[in-house]
Amino acid sequence: MKEFLLLFRQPDYDYSKATPEKMSDLTKRWQEWVEGIALQGKLVPGGKRLAQEGKVLKAGGIITDGPFVEVKEKLGGFIIVMAESLDEATTLAHGCPGIDEGGTVEIRPLY
User: Is the pLDDT confidence value at 15 over 80?
Assistant: First the structure.
């Protein structure tokens, strides 16, 4: 089996403005989805949700605030899964709750 990174991209949305009910529902859906992968024995411990703040270091020592680029989505978090192929890892990404919220999942092999 190989390791694959599932990188969650989300729309630029302020989740602090979401209702408690929406956040509770979304959290439950994420937990159930990740638990389903874990029950298959395909989850590598250590995935994380990413904070909103950060820094970007560019050539020439230029530092900017935030991990932000000129796009309408941002990185929201990641998990690492075990799969036989990129196709299988992509299948594991199906059902990701972030997709229902307008996000995407990028699937990348790890070397």
Answer: no
* pTM tops 0.85, yes or no: no
Residue 73: phi and psi, rounded to 5, are -140, 165
Cβ atoms < 10 Å from Cβ of 21: 8
How open is the CA angle 92-20-101, to the nearest 5 degrees?
A: 35
CATH number of 2-109: 3.30.70.1060
At 66, is the secondary structure helix, strand, or coil? Answer: coil
pLDDT recorded at residue 40: 96
**Adjacency order of strands within the sheet including 73-83:** 43-49, 73-83, 2-11, 104-109
Domain boundaries, the chain: 2-109
Which pLDDT score, from 0 to 100, does residue 64 have? 74
